[in-house]
Amino acid sequence: MIRRSAARRPRITPRAIPFPGGAAIFRRMFVRLGCRGRAPHFDVVFYPYAGLSHTIRLREETAEARLSDLMRGAPLDALEAAAAVLLSKLYRLRLPADLARRYRSFADSARISRRVERARRRRGRRRHSGPQGVAHNLENIFRWLNAEYFIGRLPATDLGWSVAPWRRQLGVFDPGMRHIVINRRLDRPRVPEHVVAYVVYHEMLHLERAAPLHLRTPAGALAHRDYRCRLGLHTPEFRRAERQFRQFHLARRFLLRAGLW
Ligand SMILES: [Zn+2]
Q: Does residue 67 contact residue 51 with C-beta atoms inside 8 Å?
């Protein structure tokens, strides 16, 4: 019997546009950055983030990279530089200065700035129902968490409750939209504030880690400024930071018991 192999089929979400030539670019940059060992399998897509944002994550042997769809048709130079930026973050490597320059000059170019602005306006609509819920106000929670855990240095962020209750996730930070949305199911008086705060805190940790990638340049484009920043979603470091939340165990226990986890 011959079975068709499904293993190598790229994972494509509905909004993503496949970029078949992307894998070769990433493999080349993998070598260029001096990454040791075997390269992962690369799945590369263009993704309609609100701005010029890109993400990468490792899932076992596959690195899933999403380049902003604003890079479609970009010169090879710029695509290579963007791949290098993502790989340097994933593997915590220094980005060579020439690649950093290449990426920045692309991101700062007027043409891209205009496209970014247009995309922002088009997609910048809020996909949540605002921070004031029935039982909890996310803005207040964000404010005191920012003061208490982040010495107030996290940027003001668009916050809101999900429009509909979600089944599978408690909250989300979208690096493209730069917003934090919390599952409406937590907006009930019987859910203690520290439980909502725990979920917001978790998303704020993502915001903190993503922030350097999305700094605004004077030209209005988004550029990567701090090449030492880390990506990785829930790295051991992230998990350690998460446990700094004072009611960490209490909040998780509540979520488990309530069947929300
Ligand atoms: Zn997370």
A: no
| Centroid of ligand 1 to alpha carbon of 32 (angstroms) | 30
54 CA to middle of ligand 1, Å?
Answer: 17
For ligand 1, the distance from its centroid to the CA atom of residue 67, given in whole angstroms, is: 20
Span from the CA of 170 to the centroid of ligand 1 (angstroms): 9
Cα 29 to ligand 1 centroid, rounded to whole Å = 27
Residue 230's closest CA among 92, 78, 107, 137?
A: 92
pTM, two decimals, is: 0.50
pLDDT along the chain (261 residues), means of 10: 44 74 94 87 90 86 90 89 92 89 83 69 70 96 96 90 89 80 95 97 89 39 30 78 96 91 76
In the chain, the domains with their CATH numbers are: 17-123 (3.30.2010), 138-257 (3.30.2010.10)
Ligand 1 center to 125 CA (angstroms): 23
> For the range 31-39, what are the long-range contacts, defined as Cβ-Cβ under 8 Å and sequence gap of 24 or more?
32/84, 32/96, 32/99, 33/84, 33/87, 33/88, 33/91, 33/93, 33/95, 33/96, 34/93, 35/87, 35/91, 35/93
